[in-house]
Specification:
Keywords: Endoplasmic reticulum, Glycosyltransferase, Transferase. The protein has 7 helices and 6 strands, in the order E-H-H-E-E-H-E-H-E-H-E-H-H. The chain has helices at 14-20, 23-31, 68-73, 83-91, 108-118, 130-136, 150-160; strands spanning 3-7, 36-40, 57-61, 76-79, 96-100, 123-126. It has a 6-stranded parallel sheet, with helices on both faces. Helix 5 (108-118) packs across helix 7 (150-160).
């Protein structure tokens, strides 16, 4: 069963959970053959019921010890732009769509998402453009991110965050 896993990490990102469970977003997922939507909602105020999205199998939880298995089983991961969530997903070799929380004050997440996108490791959008991105995305353009090179990753972060 083609699965989308959505994660907000340890944060609260209700806007992402609201956006991905709209009928338009669910229809865009269904049109791409996805049948199951698994939501990790973190500290958010929303915890959608299984029957809240009638056209897709929905599961939702707040936290668990590890989301590694959820990531591994997903055909697509949709994540907030936290560095840990991005690196875990890319390290697992899963296609990644990052949804930047543009309501954050310093919006550092955009820098990370933009750089990883420029290097063709992920696609990114905001909640307001999520449905359109789901309709038009081409996951075949993504290139693997080779993990296990801490120096390269440190240099990448410096570059992405404008430290150099």
């Amino acid at each position: 069963m083609k699965t989308v896993f959505v994660t907000v990490g340890t944060t609260s990102f209700d806007e992402l959970i609201e956006s991905i469970t709209t009928s338009e977003a669910v229809q865009a997922l269904k049109a791409r053959g996805y049948e199951r939507l698994v939501l990790q909602v973190g500290r958010g105020s929303l915890l959608p019921d299984a029957d809240s999205c009638p056209h897709i199998r929905l599961e939702a939880f707040r936290f668990k010890d590890s989301i590694a298995e959820d990531i591994k089983q997903a055909d697509l991961v949709i994540s907030h732009a936290g560095a840990g969530s991005c690196m875990e997903t890319l390290g697992a070799g899963r296609p990644l769509l990052v949804v930047v929380n543009d309501k954050l004050m310093d919006n550092h997440q955009l820098e990370l998402a933009r750089q990883l996108h420029m290097d063709s490791h992920l696609l990114y959008c905001t909640c307001s453009t999520l449905t359109e991105t789901l309709r038009t995305m081409d996951l075949s353009v993504l290139k693997p991110f080779i993990p296990g090179q801490p120096k390269h990753f440190a240099n990448f972060l410096d570059k992405a965050l404008g430290v150099q």
